[in-house]
Design brief:
It is a multi-pass membrane protein. The protein contains 26 helices and 14 strands. By secondary structure, it is of the alpha+beta class.
Length: 650
């Protein structure tokens, strides 16, 4: 019986492990063909039509030939169908990821590494061997993708899905806004048809913009006109799709229309030969055989791979959680890491670059009725059809048309500038995170900018806990609520009781500030009460000199006061007066509701609070309310110190 029980438990665990690793097995056997299949097919075809031009366009951002964007729009999408936990996101090429990869590729394979001098032409300037340069950049992008996949798989296996909590929403939105500015500037040269060097690293956006403006007089008019027409058309299509989305059965595929029309115009008018318009060029037919990455690049790319891996996962999981919440199911962050890692790692052997999910394609996939990743599978088959059969058709496609597609797709990211006034009203600290993430990423580049943004966000956490807001609480009559008496007029203090609240845990970084704030808001209140009582008693004295006096109700220490009656209350030392009156403070409550932990330094600081000793003679009692047992167990000496400090738990 024991053996059979163990065997059944082992099989159950194995089955759970398989279902976790291959989420498709949890929904495919019960897939409702009649209800879902038609919607998924329509959604997949619509998404594939969008994915095709975006794959071609984002390959330009990744600094590799356009066909590699098609490869990256097929293999990862196919694999995600089996390993992903989200039913609605559209994985594949993504502008921010592509730009980051392109920056690394350009850094490792710059143009000046491939300068070639013409034979027997010493007076002529060197030309760039674009074929050799592109081949090297592909190797860099492929190896970077392999490392990104390995890192994401390891993070998923080690259950490191929590790392994205350090990429807060304001940080991510500020970072992606900066990335959109980088992308926009990088496409200006394609829109204008000018020849400039591609820059990367610190101030690369400044150098790129300067280079474009410096060469703006050499703008190709035909290229500019074609690009502007594409931008205006795509903008109008996006407006119509948004304005009439409830009436349109499927969104108007503006991008594929631009690709087809511009390709036809380019071919019919021979724009490449007669008007010097840059076109996509050769697109080989068929898929490439698998090949191992160049592992000699490993030491130079390992740092970049961590950045790309984390950014890619943060984009994926944020969208996945958003649509899972909307449609009532859950996603597994660690499995998403593994899924993305497998998509990148396996696909890299087929010459792809790193992918994530795209907001624009995800919205298309979801709005056109996509129910499961069958829609993603259909989208990948659309791309496969182009790669295998009709890729050559897009060889005359002008690069300015792809630039127009990229620029218009950035509109959604540029709308994130609206976050600034909203954050100004709601949270100045989150606004600072947004601005630092954006400014640092614009000026320092996306890799260093992200690092600076994360460090700054962590510093804000330290700042918030080191400088917590403190207050004296009062009770709102007729309720069980307690609020700051300085902010809420309805809140009234209990007679003789001061409730002190600080919205942070107590540890070495803020323990002194906690005690200081406690003195300012509570202990000084006790002293003020005492001084008022002294002045009141003095004003009742007929003579101008007061000496020792003891009564049954009050105890007055030795003190001589010289001066006329009615003068201001003189300074009193610590030995002066201890008076017991009906209005005196007799209890101080430390509200520890927000305190999740207290370390030894914080505990010692609480023990040294002066009120627990100086006012013991008059019965001022210090108690702790809502002390978490969990926080006490985290540090055993704390329990001993608190037990010495408090005689009562409120």
């Amino acid at each position: 019986t024991a053996m059979s029980l163990n065997r059944s438990c082992s099989s159950a665990r194995a089955r759970a492990a398989v279902l976790s690793f291959l989420p498709i097995l949890t929904w495919l056997p019960s897939y409702p063909v009649r209800r879902f299949l038609f919607s998924d097919v329509v959604s997949g075809l619509s998404t594939g039509v969008v994915q095709l031009p975006q794959g071609l366009a984002y390959a330009m951002l990744a600094a590799v030939p356009p066909v590699y964007g098609l490869y990256s729009s097929f293999y990862p999408v196919l694999l995600y169908t089996f390993f992903g936990t989200s039913r609605h996101i559209s994985v594949g090429t993504f502008a921010v990821m592509s730009l980051m990869i392109g920056g690394v590729a350009v850094r490792e394979a710059p143009d000046d590494m491939f300068n070639v001098l013409p034979a027997n032409a010493s007076n002529m300037s060197a030309t760039v061997d674009t074929e050799a340069r592109d081949a090297r950049r592909v190797q860099v992008a492929v190896m970077l993708t392999t490392l990104v996949g390995i890192i994401q798989i390891l993070f998923g296996v080690l259950r490191f899905g929590f790392v994205t909590i350090y990429l807060t929403e304001p940080l991510v939105r500020g970072f992606t806004t900066a990335a959109s500015l980088h992308v926009f500037v990088s496409q200006l040269k394609y829109l204008l048809g000018v020849k400039t060097q591609r820059f990367c690293g610190v101030l690369s956006i400044v150098y790129s913009l300067k280079a474009v403006l410096w060469n703006i007089t050499s703008t190709n008019v035909a290229t500019l006109i074609l690009g502007l027409v594409g931008i205006v058309f795509l903008y109008l299509v996006k407006y119509v799709n948004e304005r009439f989305k409830k009436k349109l059965p499927v969104p108007i595929p503006g991008e594929i229309i631009v690709v087809m029309v511009s390709t036809g115009v380019s071919y019919g008018l021979s724009l490449s030969d007669d008007y010097m318009v840059d076109v996509v060029g050769k697109i080989p037919t068929g898929l490439l055989p698998p090949a191992a990455p160049d592992f000699s690049l490993f030491p130079r790319l390992i740092t970049d791979s961590f950045t790309v891996a984390i950014v890619g996962f943060s984009m994926d999981i944020s969208l996945a959680k958003t649509f899972a919440l909307k449609h009532g199911y859950s996603v597994d962050g660690n499995q998403e890491l593994i899924a993305l890692g497998l998509c990148n790692f396996i696909s890299s052997f087929f010459q792809t670059f790193a992918i994530s999910c795209s907001m624009s394609r995800t919205l298309v996939q979801e709005s056109t009725g996509g129910k499961t990743q069958i829609a993603g599978l259909m989208a990948s088959l659309v791309v496969l059809l182009v790669v295998v059969a009709i890729g050559f058709v897009f060889q005359p496609l002008p690069q300015t048309a792809l630039a127009a597609i990229i620029m218009v797709n950035l509109l959604g990211m540029f709308k994130q500038f609206r976050d600034i006034p909203n954050l100004w009203r709601t949270s100045k600290i989150e606004l600072a995170i947004w601005l630092v993430a954006c400014a640092a990423s614009v000026l320092l580049g996306l890799d260093y900018g992200l690092l600076v943004a994360v460090l700054f966000a962590m510093l804000t956490v330290i700042y918030r806990t080191q400088s917590p807001k403190s207050s004296v609480l009062g009770h709102v009559p007729g309720t069980g609520l307690y609020y700051d008496v300085d902010e809420y007029e309805e809140a009234a203090e209990y007679e003789g009781i001061k409730i002190f609240h600080s919205n942070s845990s107590i540890y070495f970084a803020n323990s002194d500030l906690y005690v200081t704030s406690l003195k300012e808001k509570v202990i000084l209140c006790v002293c003020v009460c005492v001084c008022v009582i002294i002045c009141f008693e003095v004003e009742d004295v007929d003579s101008t000199e007061v000496t020792r006096e003891v009564s049954s109700d009050n105890h007055v220490a030795v003190q001589h006061i010289n001066g006329p009656v009615g003068d201001s209350c003189p300074d009193v030392d610590s030995e002066v007066v201890h008076l017991k009156t009906p209005n005196a403070v007799h209890s101080i409550v430390l509200d520890w509701t927000p305190v999740t932990f207290i370390d030894s330094v914080g505990a010692k600081a609480i023990k040294q609070v002066p009120v627990s000793k100086e006012y013991a003679a008059v019965g001022v009692r210090v108690v702790i309310a809502a002390c978490s047992s969990k926080s006490s167990h985290d540090f055993s000496p704390t329990v001993i110190i608190i037990s010495e400090l408090c005689s009562t738990r409120a």
